[in-house]
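User: Can you recover a sequence for this backbone? Please restate the input before giving your answer.

Assistant: Of course. Working from this structure:
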């Protein structure tokens, strides 16, 4: 017992600032790994991976050479397979980490730009509300920190001011680009008719159509705010971080976008 206490005492004596920093960094990394797994379909594989690793440890302790050899090779190959399988999710997670690292440097927006953004939000909300009343489907992506160049390439560049009439004309059911998505970039309608990645999440409600699944898929791979209008029910929804929030009206949508986009709220005329 005395030897045990001496060993513990020795460890505490050798424990320094670098050790504390090391533990904190590892804790942060583990936290984000767990968060990443919980928020995506990787959670369904996490239990299986833990079981395989547990069996591998037991086989090593019991010196079960055949089982240990088999599982160690499975783990090595499996890690590579997981990286390939979840490449889109890993890419999205790294993009979000990279963009959030510089977020504080990008928050030096002038009051004029904030009010201009508020006016644009008001125009988007008015257009979306009118489209919902007319049961016209719509899909609008508002870019934030994650660049959407790959998505913009799939559509037609417009680079126009944000106005109610423009958005309604794009989503008019006989317009050539009404089935695609509109990308809002730098406070402008930058592209229309864009194609989005479809969510592969098996937990999504089966009643949701292609438009809503595409919105969720886009929000899984970026930090964009995605607005969806259902042409069947006229329901207004927002997809964010892989989740769908539903049943917005003009006022609640405006409040939500103002909060998410950090704009100065504008008064309605």
């Amino acid at each position: 017992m005395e030897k045990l206490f001496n060993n513990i005492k020795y460890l505490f004596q050798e424990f320094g600032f670098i050790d504390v920093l090391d533990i904190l960094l590892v804790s942060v990394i583990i936290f984000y790994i767990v968060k990443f797994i919980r928020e995506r379909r990787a959670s369904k594989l996490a239990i299986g991976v833990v079981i395989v690793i547990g069996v591998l440890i037991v086989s090593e302790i019991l010196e079960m050479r055949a089982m240990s050899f088999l599982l160690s090779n499975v783990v090595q190959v499996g890690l590579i397979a997981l990286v390939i399988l979840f490449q889109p999710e890993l890419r999205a997670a790294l993009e979000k980490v990279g963009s959030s690292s510089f977020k504080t440097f990008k928050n030096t927006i002038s009051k004029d730009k904030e009010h201009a953004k508020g006016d644009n939000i008001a125009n988007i909300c008015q257009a979306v509300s009118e489209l919902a009343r007319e049961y016209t489907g719509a899909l609008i992506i508002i870019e934030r920190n994650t660049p959407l160049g790959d998505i913009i390439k799939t559509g037609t560049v417009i680079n126009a001011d944000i106005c109610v009439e423009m958005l309604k004309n794009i989503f008019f059911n006989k317009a050539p680009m009404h089935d695609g998505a509109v990308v809002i970039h730098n406070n402008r309608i930058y592209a229309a008719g864009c194609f989005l990645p479809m969510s592969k999440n098996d937990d999504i409600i089966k009643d949701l159509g292609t438009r809503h699944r595409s919105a969720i898929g886009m929000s899984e791979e970026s930090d964009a705010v995605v607005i969806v209008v259902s042409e069947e029910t006229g329901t207004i929804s927002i997809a964010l971080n892989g989740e769908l929030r539903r049943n917005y009206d003009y006022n609640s949508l405006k409040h939500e976008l103002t909060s998410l986009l950090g704009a100065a709220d504008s008064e309605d005329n």
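That completes the design. The longest strand covers residues 188-194.
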